Amino acid sequence: MTSARTIPSLVTLALALATPAGAGGQSNAGALSDAAGSSALREPPVLENLSSEPGVVEVRLVAAPATLAYGPGGATRVLAFNGSVPGPTLEAREGDRVVVRFRNELDEPTTIHWHGIHLPFEADGSPFHPVGPGEEHVYAFTVPPGTAGTYWYHPHPHHRTTHQVSHGLFGALIVRAADDPLAGMPERLLVLHDNRFDETGAIDVPERRSLQARIDDENGREGDVLFVNSQVGPVIDIRPGEAQRWRIVNASAARVYRLGIPGSTMVHVGSDGGLFERPTEVEEVIVANSERVEVVVRGGAAGGEEATLQALPYDRYIPQTRPRDWDTPRDLLTLRTAGEPLADPVRVPEILREVAPLDPGSASAARLVVLTQGMINNRKMDMARVDITAPLGATEVWEIENLVGMDHPFHLHGFRFQVIDRNGVAVPFRSWKDTVNVPKHERVRIIVRYEDFAGKWMFHCHILNHEDMGMMGVLEIT
Ligand code: C2O
Ligand code: CU
Ligand code: CU
User: Residue 212 sits in which domain range?
Assistant: First the structure.
């Protein structure tokens, strides 16, 4: 971690707190865009821990309108956490008590959902617990041991998630382990998202019932500007021989990234819920919206080499609304080898950690969850209805079947799961997941254990427009 990451958080926090709602915060040093590109990657500020008690991380988050240098037009009206897009990064360690003092300075209800974190129902920030405009709310949870990984947070109000996230409300949450097998390796946080701007440079919100609105409802909202943090085409410097750990969050409303560095491989070390048992060498990795990956990338041998991280074509669409340029690779960032060779880089060990298997033999139910366009099991979301009921402590297998010709990334709140197989073919290795992409006409089986927390938990398609339209259901654990 560079020390530059921690300094802007104070600045940002001060700005956000000093800025009355609607007055527009000014830009912060940590997470601005420069649409022209080719500057060094900047990472979001890290939230300042206001607690001096060991094992407690206490932070303040404010959601408010702001004006930032974001997008091609320069000063742009956004919605931001603490005046920053992406929002500041929440860093905690396994076992930490996290206390988030949140204030909603938007003019509509919102929530903060801690995507992928195992926590009590009251802290989940789901549509069941809206925070009204002007209200404050305290989210409190303990990060369970064994869950070190890269997570993220975003609003989850009923029907308005696309709007709020597309305007800038999202940030990363990193959980660290005391016994991290990659400790000491330089890290980078890459929050990927895309956006679209109108002729005035404002974030584009299509007219209701316009053609664009209908395409967004079908495809999920996509934009032609691809951001890494809030930069377009930033540069990451790496020394000859160095290895870097990249934590990548897909915070897009709908875009699926098929990531590759042409001419070089990456070491895929982790996904949603942290590290795998073993690293795997890959040429590309697919990150559906709301998924995370961890990869280790290496610099060139001599210095002066340049490589490009690209978003390679990925066809998740139905033909009718597939974007015309879907098969054009897009450059995301430049990896530039420079500086003195590194004599003794941190290496990726052969065994990273244990991922204990969940046993399908212990499952007390096998459920079929059918995805169609905008619906789950032929129903749209109803906050007053419970779709699935199960007892606390039960283990279940869910088969998620996608009957339509478009991918739907399926997400479950509260409980991490393991993917068993895809179309009947066992997945090559275990990992902890909270979102799994279900490609067109495919089926995926997952296994989950409902540990610790009763309550009502959402499961939904994480294409935000689909979620807003009701492609969501409720699992009640009693
Ligand atoms: Cu990332 Cu229900 O959400
Ligand atoms: Cu979630
Ligand atoms: Cu969907």
Answer: 187-337
